[in-house]
Design a protein that fits this description.
The protein is α/β, with parallel strands linked by helices and 349 residues long. It contains 11 helices and 10 strands. The chain has helices at 16-26, 41-50, 68-82, 94-108, 135-138, 163-176, 189-193, 216-228, 242-256, 293-299, 333-338; strands spanning 31-35, 61-64, 86-90, 113-119, 155-157, 183-188, 233-236, 259-262, 319-321, 339-342.
Length: 349
Amino acid sequence: MADGLNTVADLRAETGAEALLMALRAVGVDYLFANAGTDFPPVIEGMARLGPQAIPQSIPVPVTVPHEIAAVGMAHGFWLVTGRAQAVMVHVNVGLANAVMGVINAASDDVPVLVLSGRTPITETGRVGARATPIQYGQEMYDQTSLVRDVVKFSYEMRFPEQGDTVVKRAAALAVSAPAGPVYISLPREPLSDILPAGFAPAPVAPPATLTQPDPAAITTLAGWLAGARMPVVLCQRCMPPVRRRASCISLPTRCSAACRCAAIAAICPSPPIRWRRCRRWNPSSPPHIPTARRMWRKRRMDAATALPFWPLVATARRCRPHGFRLAYPTSWMTNRWCSANWGCWPGS
């Protein structure tokens, strides 16, 4: 046992880094995918002090990953399979730069990831965690958060040790609130190394925002489209983890005679074979001027980046999104042109 700690119940955080680790586990993070550097001795020392008996009950399982974009990809894939957000820890400066493409991918797919990066120590002498090597001068950035600010839902720089608990819990709640997405926390060494103040107690875990409900009028509109369509095709991409989306893609073809395809993530969570010929409105015995299902499918082309179907010659494309209006988009061309129905969104999404 580490430092005389006898049971998991006896574990108490002593530093900002230990508070951060225990907060990650409290919000449901199972794995900390890490490619660390000189910024994270306090985190490693915290794991060592808490001891192996703390894993995975009180702190996440650390996983060393050789490259940052692979680490973000592992957290991304874990959410697609399980629906549980994970954390990634990367180095200051170039480590965060290497992770940026993965963070952009997560933002594009509405995947919640807690992105943690080191930050060059703020002080030069006199504090635990202060600068100790010349490289820490070369790694200083005026605005390191600018590397990811445009693609994360929340960003913050830790300033005091007790914030290792509160900031992580707030960031996790924001990450999984609809529309989900990555969040970013910058971690200077000084607050990670500092001792927690006397009387410190972990904050309650913040719940995510409650999901909005579709407007009944929008549901009526969509039902009318399906009822009036001769050969409906439903293309699904975002809004929920594939593990939950799959059930809807299985039931939809039989309930409303619509061909359903989960785009973009088919390789990870493939839909069942779409039996178009068994759907009443996709019957191959249709009149000659109506193309068969497979020929109709071939006429559609999919944009791999946005999953927006181009306008086919034989049908009208309509696009419905649960968050068609996002403040992150500088212009609204895509919302105005492609979203025939908007299902509501959280303010600031």
